[in-house]
From TrEMBL:
Residues 20-79 form the HTH tetR-type domain. SUPFAM superfamilies: Homeodomain-like, Tetracyclin repressor-like, C-terminal domain. Keywords: DNA-binding, Transcription, Transcription regulation. It comes from the Bacteria. It comes from Streptomyces endocoffeicus. It holds the Pfam family TetR_N. Residues 42-61 bind DNA. This is TetR/AcrR family transcriptional regulator. The keyword Transcription regulation applies.
């Protein structure tokens, strides 16, 4: 660790336990509200869900953009944790992939696209580092299943993440109020299509996360 890094770390104030709990509640409440209603929900509603006052939000986050930045980090970190845990704890590699996919759905990863399109700095070092960790974790999970001959080899991490995003994307204001109970059912149908032997030849080429990030 460099002297500059140590100085930067020591300059960051340590939050008291109660302040840290408030910060975590705010991020959790913001993620919940965004999933339900989109990223432009009033901060008053986020404060109400978190059980704090509006002033508490502004003590932790300078504005809505910074709060959403931390929600995006939280979602990606949680999903990366799920991928790493599944690979480490499951004996069967395809079971690990299945466990990850359903766990990622429970984290409402589809809301992440809405967050990242809401004016965030996609090149922020924290976002890049967390995104890279997520990509590496999912790549390792899929690579293990491919090496065992259980996952078809003509798909990439991007293919998996596109399906997850589409199947878990929130539908604010829609009439599909009972959509969520069907998510895991349709994810299971999708997973059946990933298992070997492949029953068809896919058009195009496998999709990477880089492909998704550099779309025009």
């Amino acid at each position: 660790m460099t002297a500059d890094t140590m100085t930067a770390k020591s300059a960051q104030p340590r939050l008291r336990a109660d302040a840290l709990r408030n910060r975590e509640r705010i991020v959790a409440a913001a993620r919940e509200v965004i999933v339900e209603s989109g990223a432009h929900i009033p901060l008053d509603e986020i404060a109400r869900r978190a059980g704090v006052g509006n002033a508490t939000i502004y003590r932790h986050f300078t504005d809505r953009r910074e709060l959403i930045h931390h929600v995006a980090l939280s979602v990606m970190s949680c999903v990366a944790d799920q991928a790493e845990s599944a690979l480490a704890e499951e004996d069967d590699t395809f079971s690990a992939l299945r466990r990850f996919v359903h766990a990622a759905a429970d984290e409402h990863i589809g809301a992440l696209c809405l967050l990242l399109s809401d004016g965030l700095d996609k090149e922020h070092p924290d976002l890049i580092a967390t995104r890279d960790r997520l990509a590496d974790a999912v790549e390792a999970l899929m690579g293990a299943a491919k090496a065992d001959g259980k996952l078809r080899t003509d798909i990439g991490v991007g293919d998996l993440m596109v399906a997850l995003n589409q199947l878990t994307r929130p539908l604010p204001g829609s009439a599909c109020v009972d959509f969520e109970p069907f998510v895991h059912r349709h994810l299971q149908l999708f997973l059946d299509g990933l298992h070997t032997p492949a029953r068809s030849e896919l058009p195009g080429k496998s999709v990477t996360l880089e492909d998704l990030q550099h779309r025009p």
